[in-house]
Amino acid sequence: MALNKEKYYIMKKLLLLLAxxxxxxxxxxxxxxxxxxxxxNVHYSLENVNYTQYxxxxxxxxxxxxxxxxxxxxxxxxxxLETQNIKSTPATLFEPxxxxxxxxxxxxxxxxxxxxxxxxxxxxxxxxxxGGPQFGFGFKRATTFYYDHDFFPQEPITYEKKxxxxxxxxxLGGGVKYxxxxxxxxxxxxxxxxxxxxxxxxxxxxxxxxxxxxxxxxVPYTSSYLLVGAAVKIGKK
Length: 237
Description:
The chain has one helix and ten strands. By secondary structure, it is mainly β. Strands 1-2-3-4-5-7-8-10 form an eight-stranded antiparallel β-barrel. Strand 8 and strand 9 form a beta hairpin. The model has no long low-confidence stretch (mean pLDDT about 85).
């Protein structure tokens, strides 16, 4: 008899919790949007490290998005194919003709931003701000050394690696969203990411290299994004 009373008490509490959760969800106006995103980025360094100067170059992004909305608040996540390009001029050795005049790095990765977003207003045109972590899963890197010295020119040399790389960045930005109708919306966004941590695993040698903010050889890479997107609400309006 006591056991039945305990089960009844537990069931009553569970039903109460479910009712509270349903009330919160209804009042929060939970909605979900799926869409596509595309745009460009400029990858560069905030500081020159080890006598090397860095110059930003243009890359691109393309992928899919999901925005789970709780009224004005939302959780935004995306999976984007991203290319990062950067040029650097390393320090010259005692024999300048043995040193490259400049180096170009091309990195490819899958970028996954996981951002908190807040949207202002309830009209067709709605500004928003967002911020949070951005994860990068690198799968291909190419480094090209150029020896275009006037006195001793050489052909460029390219080294390609498919080492797996994990990057963690802090991202923040903002933009505007235009609601075409109750279902479809367009958006334009500016985002800035700052590298915090990076780990690379060499497939052939099974070695791991880790660098983090604060290390002596850490290069403070950052990327500026300009992205446009389109999304569709799924489920009930």
